[in-house]
Amino acid sequence: MTAINQDQKEFWNGNGGSSWVSGQEEMDRFLAPFTEQLMTHAVPAKGERVLDIGCGTGDTSLKAAAAVGASGSVHGVDISQPMLNLAESRAAGQGASHASFAEGDAQTDTLGDAADLVISRFGVMFFEEPTVAFKNIHAHTKPGGRMVFICWQPVRENEWVHIGLGIAKKHVEFPPPPDPYAPGPFAFADIERTLGILGDAGWSNAKAEPFATKLNQGSSARDAAESLMLRGPISRVMMDKTDAEKEAVLSDLTDAMEAKMVDSKVLLGAGVWIVSATA
């Protein structure tokens, strides 16, 4: 296991996973526009078997489970056990016995029975070897099966990212910029490269559709700023900063969020790619 891959697993089984679990309802609301787009494009049908890559706390898996019904099934895979624990609890609470969850790495692990449909909401950009991962996913998809996933467009198209980064960089030192193609939220922002990876992995008819929206970051400027600090793109950098540095960033970020209030909501621009392909 390489250092990058291990880093991802440690983060999502540590502070990264626990912060998502504690903010599950908030994150589901924040990501709701993309969940809707994912389901609209994927169109899970009654009786189908769905594989959800990077299923997290189970929001997309449970929506797919409702669509395929008891005659179908959904299998969610993630590297974060804390998030999977919550997904299993939510499924039990909804009586979704046809939704199952397992800790696993889509790059190398067995992903259950062959799927009719593969979905992912921001769960595929963290692969250290994306071609290997998509080959493995392809091997777990029925011939002619389809895949739909959502990944972020470049940072410049995502206000919810660059507004926080700009403010944080005024107060704290950031590490050198990573390789833009290294595992991370924006690893698939170069969509031509991403489509090329899918082709190399054996997928056909790969295409991408842009989608832009405004994300509801919360009902108060302070809550929105705190959420970006805890679960946004600056969270990992701010984790080990001093209380004074954190408060300075939080204060300026709160002021910035105040300027983004519309009808008692903090709305921030976001852009994604909706990618589809056929096995």
From TrEMBL:
GO biological process: methylation
UniProt-listed CDD domains: AdoMet_MTases
Gene3D superfamilies registered for this protein in UniProt: Vaccinia Virus protein VP39 (3.40.50.150)
InterPro entries found in the cross-reference section: Methyltransf_25, SAM-dependent_MTases_sf
Lineage: Bacteria, Pseudomonadati, Pseudomonadota, Alphaproteobacteria, Hyphomicrobiales
PANTHER family reported in the protein's UniProt record: METHYLTRANSFERASE, UBIQUINONE BIOSYNTHESIS O-METHYLTRANSFERASE, MITOCHONDRIAL
Source organism, top-level taxon: Bacteria
A Pfam cross-reference name: Methyltransf_25
Domain Methyltransferase positions: 50-145
SUPFAM superfamilies documented for this protein: S-adenosyl-L-methionine-dependent methyltransferases
Keyword Lipid biosynthesis assigned: no
UniProt keyword annotations, A-Z: Methyltransferase, S-adenosyl-L-methionine, Transferase
GO molecular function, one term: methyltransferase activity
The keyword S-adenosyl-L-methionine is annotated on this UniProt entry: yes
Designated name of the protein: Methyltransferase
